[in-house]
## 1
Amino acid sequence: MHEFYQMPLFVKLKVRNIEKSKEWYANVINFNSVFDFPDANGTTSMTHLRGTKYQDLMLIQAKEVNTTDSVIINLFSSDIYSIYQAALDNKTNIIQQPTVQPWNAKELTLEDPDGYVFTITESVDTNKDFDTVIDNVNDQL
């Protein structure tokens, strides 16, 4: 049973093939189905997926999908390399391999089957405080 809570923010994504997308989200970024909403014919028209708490996505079945590079969805992970390996195994378009950034993050950027861009972020050093991280960023500018 999944925990019920009010979601402070979530994203709805139109997808061409909801079942294929559900499989990709489960296999690559470890998002699992919370529940499916059927249409009048009993076919899934919307599905609620969840990674960790407060990482909620709604996939909506659509005939046409118009993605844009104006939005990049960021997700925190504590195991970026398993997601990277799953992305490779599932022939995912990898925009950026896991790369250490000056802001104390390792980032992996992927594209889902419909062209939505996700950056998976993992902390590099959890012992660094905010000021140290910002000083490091400023030093690299």
Note: The longest helix spans residues 18-29.
## 2
Amino acid sequence: MWAIVKNDTRLVPGILTGALGFWLCWLGNEMPRPTGWSSAPGLFPVIIGAGLVLMAIALLIERQRILRLEAQKRLEPKHETLLEAKMEEILAEPPMTRTAILRVIAITAVIGLYILALKFLQFEVATFAFLAMCMFAFGERSIIKILVISVLVTIGISMAFVYFLETLLPGNGSIVDSILYG
């Protein structure tokens, strides 16, 4: 069940993702819970944690499927097609290129900066900057596209939570909340 596979890219990420998900669920459950229809501050960490646990389960299920396919391949007689040869060539490549690793590091740093910025900036300012930096890190180079999408998504999120759901946003206040409710 827990055999090591060449280029195994699912076991460690699956375990780490599941552990992080369970930890977020535990943290969310430890936060205070208001009564009535109000959402608790721990709701968001529980939702994210549950999503991470589900992703971890999916990674581990996919890993088991790959192990089963490799076991079947070892038992079957070898008659490789052109497609199988090409797939073997693709799968032999390293799972993470240098560019992909740099992107992961950049996104991790941007998420950390976003969390820190929410302590000092209004939600919309921090979210706009976060989205713009993420789009740039993922390879978008059109400044106009970055600005337009970041503004529209930030306003959409703010309006959805402040006006429609009537909940507080994280951060040091909200521009939309100030405009709508003074």
Note: The chain has seven helices and no strands.
## 3
Amino acid sequence: MLRALSILPLRALHGLGSAVAWLSIKLDRKDWHIARVNADLCFTDWSAAQRHALARAALRENAKGLFELAALWYWPVDRVLGLVESVENPEVIHDAMAEGRGLLVIAPHHGAWELLQMWLAQRVPLHALYRPPRWPDLEALLNRGRSRSGATFWPARPSGIRALFKALKAGEAVGVLPDQVPPGEGVLVPFFGQPAKTMTLFGKMAHRSGAPVVIGWAERLPDSKGFRLHWQRVTAPVDSDDPQVAAAAVNQEIEALVRRCPAQYQWTYQRFSRRATGEPNPYRELA
């Protein structure tokens, strides 16, 4: 389907996404409920109307992100990168790489994260993990779309993790999306004031490698006028040898970024599903 849709301009792809989001709300689909639960959990100081509006906007932005994959994965790479209207603080990438200790990139599920890695992989040797999907055909599609940029993707297995450490040791860049519930080891630390099970892998990589850390996201501009990339050097203690401190620092960095444009975060994900023993799952009624 994405290949067929790739004949469309970005504005039309985003229009289809908006239509699908509208339909999801009208049909009272599960992703609509998840977005509302997350808005209620994370923005307690907002009015009910504001939280409802955020959930609607998030559904629309998430659907735009799904349909724009037709462009990101099938248009020529030069045409895709031509959608980048501006880049905020691009020098932090060059300066960090110049230190010769590799580079760790925090890339949350915010905005057009697939475009972010494409842009970065054109400038530095980039490695990242991915969680293999259940369906081999889908894995082939993901690998084809993502590898066009020149980035190297490793399955989230011990061998893949070793490959990331090797890349850092060689002075290369490693991108991590650390804002999903880890299937294995993790710690409960705050995210928007809520306990969220968070990976400890990022902190371990930062601590062991001593690599500089940056955070970035690709902002989807209004009216499908392209994207603006944002980069920032991270000074928070994400490299602490205390897993709780490091994971909490990562979440704080992501939260600060998301608050700049809340609607473009992936609020349709069950980020708070893993709670402390005895605490109810806030999404339990959606199962």
Note: The mean pLDDT is 94.
